[in-house]
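Quick one: structure for this chain?
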Amino acid sequence: MTAPLAEEFRAVMAGVATPVSVVTTLTDGSPHGTTVSAFASLSMSPPMVLVSLDRGSELLSRLAVDSVFGVNVLGSGQAALALAFARKGSDKFTGVDWVAEDGAPRLTGSPGWLACTVSQLVAGGDHVIVLGEVRAAAREDLAPLTYHARTFGTHAAAV
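Got it. Here's what it folds into:
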């Protein structure tokens, strides 16, 4: 990709509001997670989602077909949590409240929760698309955290 095209592509994508989620998994009882904004519903029958992870992601190296992962859809007050899980390192869960639920770490206070089983890993440029079949779901009625124009915010209607 040429430099001008890459810059325009980044600019266009910065204009797309996306949900912010932390994808998690357990390996030998230890929690692992990373922040993602490339997450979407894929299918209703069966219920499936897709998550895009960088090929160099530590979390991706821990996922394989039939493994379990969680999607914690963050709320508008969880920007600091999104930033903490976006950094490199193995201590992302230090000081974070979580519980193991349906085989994956669920972050306390996140308004959306999905427990999934990896059904397929699909190459996509410098990322891998993780297709997950949803095995459990839960939600709370809280405003979501979104990412738009390189800034955290929310798309919830003001009351």
